[in-house]
Each structure stands twice: as structure tokens, then as C-alpha cells.
Design a protein that fits this description.
Pfam families: AP_endonuc_2. This is Sugar phosphate isomerase/epimerase family protein. The protein is 42% helix and 14% strand. The protein is α/β, with parallel strands linked by helices and 297 residues long. It has one domain: TIM Barrel (Alpha-Beta Barrel). It has an eight-stranded parallel sheet. Helix 7 links the parallel strand 7 and strand 8. The longest helix is centred in the middle third of the chain and has 20 residues. The radius of gyration is 20 Å and the shape is globular. The protein starts with a helix and ends with a helix.
């Protein structure tokens, strides 16, 4: 080895020695595909899914979480599931998870719920997805009794989906953390669902905004259960969504350890409050993430 190469190697090793010991490696290449929740760009997906996906790929996204499955027609964004998969393959993109509309089935008979779950499984398998996710409950369902019913339904769905060879998760918002006479829905869900059947999708924005916990604290209490993440920023004035790097959440400080979390996929998200429009916001968040945060993942 000549002197110049030796000095270069010594400099790199010296820098590595000064880095803090951490489960995050600042020098490794990304371990996860950069993902995006397509609800963030729903206006453009409704107009032209192909062009929207092409644009998202151009700015750096490789993987997606879908929404808006049409269970009766087995379609996504107007495409039969098999044709949507062909489009993804053509663009060399993947869909690793989906938000499916379970809320209307919370109080329906188990037979109706089971039929809907079967339809979701067929759709998810057509896309080669890994996860089916329960994303939301309606306002009238946010009582302690309904959270207990929800937990029972989550276990039933989780068993059906697990037996089909897929993963199932529940996505939090802020309402689960609201105090109701010393109890809250989130603790009911955590304590009354089977961790082997029901994984958790942590929305870090909502944890920061609505709970007394940090994402790290939640994951420490339920390690290996938070298999998917939602990453979005909070407007400094309104508290609404905003582009990554444009808000008040310091992800350098609050990002949990992906190994402790059991992380498999993450999705950048911005549900609205775009500075200009959804396309520009998607690109701005991608640029910030690649520059500032991708080194952790």
C-alpha cells in the first residue's frame, strides 16, 4: 500500500474511532428502501397513477404504502390488482404495505369482516405486499368499550392474515392517547392484542403531538413490535403536517433504534398542508431525508 492510500485509510479509521457507539451506523449504505405513503399524493394518484409513480421514483422513492383498495373490484387506483402490479414491476417499484378500510366493519358480524379480510389478502398478495394495516377508526368508535371491541377484532383479523402468510399491523393517530377517566385506547390496544398477531405501525408525528411518550419510550416497552414507521414533520406554528425539515420535530434526536423496533419498512408521509403542492412537497421531503436522515436507516 502506498503512503497516500495508507493515509486515506488511516483518516477514515480515525474518524470511525471518534464516532459515538450506537446501533445506528453513519457510514453504512441504507438498509431500507425509502418509502412513501401514497395518501400524501392522493390528488395526483387520482389523476394519473403512472406519471405520479414515475415522478416519485425520479425524486428517490422506491417503496410505497397504498390506500384506497376497492375490495369489490379488487383494484387499486382504477387498475385491477394484477395490472397495478405490472405497472410497479415496469417501474421497478414495490408496495410493501397497504392501509385498508376496516373501520366500517368494526361492529359488523365476523362473517362479513372475514370476507373483507379475504379480499384484502388477495389484493395484498397480488402486489407482493408484506403487510395489511388497519389505519383509522371513526370518531364515534373512539370510546373505551369500542377500543376493547377493536382489540378483539384486531386479534381475529391478525390470526386470519397471519395464517395467510402476511403481516398485520395497527396504525396510531392521536385520539388513541386521549385520557378517558384514567384510561386510553392505546393502552387497551397494546394490552389486549396478541403481539404475535398484531404488529404496530408507529406514526411518530402523532406520538409527539398527542401523547406523553417519545417514540423511543414506546418501542422500549414493546420491542420488536413496531415493524413499520410513519415519518412526517409538524408545522412550527399550526401543529399541522409539513415537509420534512420544515417543522419542529428533530428526527436526529427522536428516531428510535430500528433493530430494537423490529423495523421492516418506513414511509415518509404528509397528509396535507403543502407549502405549494403535493408533488413539490414529496420531492422536498425526499431531498431532506436523503441528506439528513437516511444515514440512520
Amino acid at each position: 500500500m502506498d503512503r497516500r492510500k495508507f493515509m486515506e485509510k488511516s483518516s477514515v479509521l480515525g474518524l470511525a474511532a471518534m464516532l459515538p457507539l450506537s446501533s445506528f451506523s453513519l457510514m453504512d449504505s441504507p438498509k431500507y428502501k425509502m418509502g412513501y405513503q401514497l395518501f400524501s399524493i392522493r390528488d395526483e394518484m387520482a389523476k394519473n397513477p403512472r406519471k405520479t409513480l414515475e415522478y416519485l421514483k425520479e425524486v428517490g422513492y422506491e417503496d410505497f404504502e397504498i390506500y384506497g383498495f376497492d375490495n369489490e373490484n379488487g383494484s387499486y387506483y382504477g387498475y385491477p390488482s394484477s395490472e397495478f402490479k405490472l405497472l410497479l414491476d415496469e417501474l421497478d417499484l414495490t408496495v410493501s404495505s397497504g392501509h385498508y378500510n376496516f373501520s366500517p366493519y368494526l361492529e359488523k358480524p365476523d362473517e362479513e369482516l372475514s370476507r373483507f379480510v379475504d379480499q384484502c389478502i388477495v389484493g395484498a398478495k397480488a402486489l407482493k405486499s408484506s403487510y395489511i394495516t388497519w389505519p383509522w377508526i371513526s370518531p364515534e368508535q373512539r370510546t373505551l368499550d369500542k377500543y376493547r371491541l377493536l382489540s378483539n377484532k384486531l386479534n381475529i383479523i391478525g390470526e386470519q392474515i397471519t395464517n395467510a402468510g402476511l403481516g398485520f399491523s395497527y396504525h396510531n393517530h392521536g385520539y388513541e392517547f386521549e385520557d378517558q377517566n384514567g384510561e386510553n385506547g392505546f393502552n387497551i390496544i397494546i394490552n389486549e392484542t396478541d403481539p404475535s398477531l398484531v404488529k404496530l405501525q408507529i406514526d411518530m408525528y402523532w406520538v409527539i403531538r398527542a401523547s406523553n411518550y417519545s417514540p423511543k419510550e414506546l418501542i422500549k416497552e414493546q420491542p420488536n413490535r413496531y415493524t413499520t414507521w410513519h415519518i412526517k414533520d409538524m408545522d412550527k406554528l399550526s401543529g399541522d403536517y409539513t415537509e420534512l425539515g420544515n417543522g419542529s420535530i428533530n428526527y436526529h434526536e427522536i428516531l428510535p433504534d430500528p433493530k430494537e423496533s423490529g423495523l421492516e419498512f418506513y414511509y415518509i408521509e404528509q397528509g396535507g398542508n403543502f407549502t405549494k403542492n403535493s408533488m413539490i412537497s414529496a420531492a422536498a421531503s425526499a431531498e431532506y431525508f436523503k441528506r439528513e436522515l437516511q444515514k440512520y436507516l
